[in-house]
Each structure stands twice: as C-alpha cells, then as structure tokens.
Amino acid sequence: MQYGIFTVGDVTTDPTTGRTPDDTERVRNMLTIARHADEAGLDVFATGEHHNPPFVPSSPTTMLGYLAGMTKHITLSTATTLITTNDPVRLAEEYAMLQVIADGRMDLMMGRGNTGPVYPWFGKDIRQGIPLAIESYALLRRLWTEDVVDWSGKFRTPLQGFTSTPRPLDGVPPFVWHGSIRSPEIAEQAAFYGDGFLHNAIFWPMEHTAAMVNFYRERYEHHGHGQADQAIVGLGGQVFMRHDSQRAWDEFRPYFDNAPVYGHGPSMEDFTRETPLTVGSPQQVIDRYAGFREQVGDYQRQLFLVDHAGLPLKTVLEQIDLLAGEVVPVLRAEADKARPAHVPANPPTHAERVAAARAAGEVATHQVAAADHWTGRTAEDDVEAADAVMR
Questions:
Q1: Architecture of domain 2-390
Q2: Domain boundaries, the chain
Q3: In the prediction, which pLDDT does 78 show?
Q4: Concatenated DSSP letters for 182-201?
C-alpha cells in the first residue's frame, strides 16, 4: 500500500508568531517538503491546483517536473488537476510531457476543485461542472489513446486531425485517479473507465466516505474491470503528532483554530471525532487509520495533509519523519497481512500498465474506452445516471 503526503499550498500566517511567508518562500518550502518525503521513504507527493490566494500551486506540472529531477523514488502526483477549467488539449500535452520527464514515476487526480470563482476566470460556467468533467475527460483520453483525433463537443472548439504531443510514454497514458467528496457522477466516471477513485475525506465522516467508495466499487465491478474489492481506492487524511499526545493537542490547537478552511468553526474535539483528523501520538494515528479498512475495504493509497495552516517548515519535516519512521511501517505491515491475495496492494505502476497492454496484444496508442458492456452507454451519455443509482 502506498503512503504519502499532499499539499494544498496555502499561504497562512503562523498564529503563534504572527509571521506570514511570501509566495516565493511557500513554493520553495513545498519543494523542500517533497524532497524530504522522498528521502524519508514515503511513496507519494501530491500537490493541489489553485488559482487564487491564499494558495500558490497554480502550475502543478512545473513543480512536479522540477521534482522529477530532484527526487529518486517517490511517485509524483496531483491532489487535484482541474479537469473542468483546464483545456483537455493542454492537459494531454502537459501531463504526457511530465510522464516522459519523470520516466513514468507519476500519476494525476482529476477533480473539479473547491473554489467557485475559478470557473468564470477561465471562461467556464460552474453550473456545468459535472458535464464539463465528463466531456473534458472523455476528450483527454482520446487525445492520449488515439494518434489523430477528430472531435466536437459542447464546451470547446472542435478538433480536426489533431495530434497531441508528446505521445504518452511507451504508448500508455498516465494512471488517473478521479477525486470527489460528494458527487456520485464522478465515482461513476472513475468506475466506467476502470480508473482509480480517491475520496479526500478530511472534512467528512467515514460513513459518507464509505458510501462513496462502496458505490464506486459496485460500479467498477458492473463495468467489468474486476471484482469490487479489486477497485483502486485512495483516501485523504490529516494528522498532527508528537510522542506526548497532550503536547500534540496543545501545539496544534492554535493552527487548527485559525486554519483558512475550518478555522473559527467546529472545535478541534468535534472535528477529530467526526473526520479522519487525528491529533496525538504515532500509536493513536496507527490505531485510527488501521481501522479504516473495516469501513472502505482494502485500499491502495493513503495521503496525509501535514503542511497547512501556517505550520513552520521545521514542524512539517518532523511530521514527515514521524510518518515515515514510526507510522507507515506499522500501517503497511498490517495492511499487507490483512489483504487477500487477489486484491492489488498498490495502484498499477507504469511498467505494469505497459506489460499488461503488451500481454493483451493491445496497440496502446489506439485504445479507446468501449461502451458499458451491460447497457451500451458511454460515460458521457448521461451524467444523471450515477445520481439516480445512489438515490
């Protein structure tokens, strides 16, 4: 199982010192955090995509391309790639380029983001968020899997005889996750294509997360990609640790209380009870996160948010060391011991995807997702279908 960290890249005043980093310092700190995670032995570093203050990661491929040359082992990913407001043509080009630069040591997570004003900034209508996500991803797949694309749709100008360059590494596109916290249509989209589904549960109770993940698993099996328990699932989480759990509570409380998203809202006691946020000792984190498989089944990726709300860089690096040195080895051993042999331990690597394509005798540059073998529908046919199934 993969364990890693993700960042939202917020620029936030440290409530204990009153100091606010500028954008340059925050970006450079994110690079330091990613390199430290690689050196510590974590499996994944993922960055969000935002285009508004107080967030700085507006160009994920620039950051990840740099990190591809500065890290050795860690998988580079996105915590959101905005499929709704980015042009699918640019996404096809930029992430294929990143895939080549990283030699396949990357994947990405499609999402719609959490900032409403971003839609008009990029000429889109937030009321069309789900249809945009469905149509744009259908086009992105074609750009990656077909050498020459003729296409027309609702949300961008038509394409005639278009070839996206560079072509995906070894003819196999990057592995894609679809991230959503409340939209069953996106879970359905992930299941239709046999892609991964990541539920970033940092603001939601596990009961809601379990409902979304289980719906995705059922639809994954329905679409013929394997058994429900073989679906590729990821979760988002959030921790703050010290060996003395009371010290962890005392140290983290001012950061929690002033965090840009949930600060001045629920109490830290309520939030830790209702969401996966765990504040305490490494053992308390182990106990909490080891139990999540009972609610969502065996899953393949767990990401932790550790660098937000104005936490100093030194503190963030200490959190990474605790994760990598004391928490992850135990969680990994417990997950490996409990997982049935037929369930994947990790998301598929690039090498595994290439080998599978070759073993199947497929010409990777011409793979196109077929219609659902049960209904004949395609993912973009009816964006209301998934919502109807959930109801």
A1: Alpha-Beta Barrel (3.20)
A2: 2-390
A3: 97
A4: S-HHHHHHHHHHT-EEEEEG
